[in-house]
Amino acid sequence: MEDPTIAQINPFPQDVRTAFQAYIHSFSYSNRERIDYSKYRQLLLYLQNPSMKPANPIESRLKHRAQTEFMLLHNKLYYKPTARFQNPRCVILESDAFDTIINEHLQLLYAGRTKTWNIIQRKFYGLKREEVEFIIKRCKNCTLNRPSTTKAPLVPIISEQAWERVQIDLIDMRHEPSGQYKWILHIKDHFSKYTQLYPLKSKHAGPIADCFTQFIAAFLPPKIMQADNGKEFKGALLILLRKYGI
Ligand SMILES: [Zn+2]
Description:
The protein is of the alpha/beta class and about 250 residues long. It has helices at about 15-25, 35-50, 55-70, 95-105, 115-125, 130-135, 140-145, 205-220, 230-245; strands at about 70-75, 75-80, 90, 125, 165-170, 185-190, 195-200, 225.
């Protein structure tokens, strides 16, 4: 059994999701920002149809709450800016809490819990710091990459087959960009030395993931992807892993 590499690990396997669901449904758990689905629908309706008449005092209070605390953005429910948070915050339903948190964690390239929480609390309404901590503590990638004193021994790399092990790197073309393309994603097969190049407009995780998708469609999914400067690639690989449900 080989050492696990980034391409072989799903940082959030199903058991983490299951544990999170159990956590937020436990009796000791409370979240005073969390809005349940039916209330979310009603708040949305009052904002979409301002002339809609509340049928009773409870609905009347809800309509008042919709108008004072919430707003519509792209037809979604947002919490209005406050003194502390100057931008509208997207209201997150319980069913989206897990994915919202892991997406932020991945987009921030596995930022720690404090940094991830600082970003999340500014963008979203309805998530708790404890939820972010619960999830990041169980992230397989962060657990594996935690600094340790023992380093893996260096062994020579021997590839058996083409496209089994590929080397990936980004070539900086910002000094002479071709139109909007400022980066080149370079994927080189360790065995045949065959090279694929993909032009990129940015080195964000999304566009890199799209190139990997093209690459996998044209060849085979490599077993191992090697990168010297892995930072840009981590986010991209994680998008892929989640997309293919590995
Ligand atoms: Zn992590």
